[in-house]
Amino acid sequence: MPDRLSALDASFLYVEDHSTPMHVGGVAIFERPREGFTHERLLDLIGQRLAFLPRYRQRVLEVPGHLARPVWVDDVDFDLNYHVRRSALPQPGSDGQLFDLVARLMSRRLDPGRPLWEAYFVEGLAGDRVALVTKTHQSVVDGIGTIEIGQLILDATPQEPEPFDDTWHPRREPSRTQLILDAVAETVQRPTELVENVRSIAHDATAMAGKVTETVGDVASALKTMVNPAPSGPLNVRTSGGRMFAGVRTRLEDLRKVRAAHGGTVNDVVVAVITGALREWLLSRGSNLTATTTVRALVPMAVRDAETAEYSTPALVGNQVDAYLVDLPVGEPNAVLRLQHIGHAMADHLDSGRSVAARGLLTVGGFAPPTLHSLGARVAGSMSGRIFNVLITNSPGPQVPLYAGQAKMVEMFPVMPLVRNQALAIGVTSYHGGVYFGLNGDRKAVSDVDLLAGMIEESLEELKGAHW
Prior knowledge:
It is a single chain. Helices cover 37% and strands 22% of the residues. The protein is an alpha+beta fold and 468 residues long. The protein has two domains: 146 residues, Chloramphenicol Acetyltransferase, CATH 3.30.559; 246 residues, Chloramphenicol Acetyltransferase (2-Layer Sandwich), CATH 3.30.559.30. The strands form three sheets. It has a six-stranded mixed β-sheet with strand order 4-5-6-1-12-11, sandwiched between helices. The protein has a six-stranded mixed β-sheet with strand order 7-14-13-10-8-9, with helices on both faces. A two-stranded antiparallel ribbon has the order 2-3. Helix 10 packs across helix 11. The longest helix is centred in the middle third of the chain and has 19 residues. GO terms for molecular function: diacylglycerol O-acyltransferase activity. It holds the Pfam family WS_DGAT_C. Its EC number is 2.3.1.20. It catalyses: an acyl-CoA + a 1,2-diacyl-sn-glycerol = a triacyl-sn-glycerol + CoA.
């Protein structure tokens, strides 16, 4: 049987256009070791690991006449050098120059005729650092058979890439006739398959409502969110093709101190910090905020399978991500009260018994945040942009250093995609004592994303200094 894309994966391809590329990204920054960390060494490292990720050497092939969803086929012309590219900043490269490069890279769609991922080895950063910028399409990372490539190449100890013989031999691409025959056979066995495929292509309201219901997990919740759209404002505008990116560095210890002083969870503190920053950003734009003004955030959260007793890799990274819509109290001037409001709003998730604590997520093999951010992006991409204003994903990482080959990773910034009519997406990752915010904004609507990034730092300082 053909390896056919799921209805959800196919929908990510159907709705993609020049203004909303459907890929997730990451920016990992490394210290260059004495032994060196070159583009060639990265090629060797990724080449060694590709055997564990067959999807990264496969491309999407359309079925003639859209009789069925596309299929995954081996790329007979696979070229690792095409996917792992080399770039450089004018030395000494600054963070601002790196983030400008990230914005340009993320605004470009992946080539649909090739495997849907790219990695950029960026040299020239100040302090003898290098960066790895990755892009992976949402249809690729399902958390079950395929994880994000950033998770696969990082190890707990330095590893010396070993020479390897690439014994991979691509399977022959199915003919046009075979694709049609397979599609007809599946339609005979499952007549609803053709209707489902047509809906996915059309991306009509019925199909969207079904995806919302499936993602939120409750029909009543889905109907409520469809009837009650998100508040209007500058975060919901027609998305352009350009992007702006900014990163923020904070310390995990500071967030833990706020939690200890005012209660809640570290995730509550992260969301409260973002809420405070959004409040100041809206005020800087002249928005008229009242005590009841809110911004609705889509906050995907990792969950356990209800039948799985322990925190295990299959239970945590198996497409088990639920969507939570949280109304952020940007109209509330008191930072502590904002945190309390968010804590109450998130309590339902904790009370469900399915929430995954940070220590549970850390049992997932490798560096899980890239995969978990990708799953969060899948949730957002499957929902209507009319029901939320901003996407916020937060994934804890290990508090010990990780390595790509011999190079120590020192920072990691997620780059979350924008869905249609969305102007801002924020990813957060904790790693080795730091908490890193990645802000991806529409170039026209949020051209001042660096200003918002600075307000995140100010919002945290406000919470740290707050007293009852």
